[in-house]
Design goal:
The chain is mainly alpha-helical. It contains 8 helices and no strands. Helices cover 78% and strands 0% of the residues.
């Protein structure tokens, strides 16, 4: 991270903050990444960008087994674009991980009702 900070402006502007957050996430420095994504979220004005940040935060929390926090992030992403299946896919993954397979099944089935070609939802339903 020091090299990135020395070579680039990773603390300047939304693009730099997002670059830093992503680099921290890839390096599995999750606490730092969450902080950087939160900073980016505070500066983001575009709903598409906010949705992407919420999705990344949700994935980080999911991989840390913080399912309640993860669900909150995916709910925020869904509120910004209720047609995007990605937040619902991940919400189902959270419910499955928490042991609520019926809720996961319901969510993934709903995705397939709206888009019968969604391969990921099909595979996830098979895994139940």
């Amino acid at each position: 991270m020091k090299l990135l900070a020395d070579k680039g402006m990773v603390n300047e502007g939304i693009g730099g903050i997002l670059f830093r957050a992503t680099a921290e996430r890839l390096a599995k420095r999750y606490t730092a990444s969450i902080g950087s994504y939160r900073r980016a979220l505070a500066e983001a004005r575009d709903d598409r960008l906010k949705r992407m940040i919420y999705l990344n935060l949700g994935r980080i929390y999911f991989h840390q087994s913080l399912y309640k926090e993860s669900l909150e992030q995916f709910s925020q992403a869904l509120a910004l674009d209720d047609k995007d299946p990605a937040p619902r896919i991940w919400m189902g993954k959270n419910y499955k991980a928490m042991g609520d397979k019926e809720k996961a099944r319901m969510i993934w089935s709903e995705i397939l009702t709206n888009d019968s070609t969604n391969a990921e939802a099909k595979e996830l339903l098979k895994s139940l």
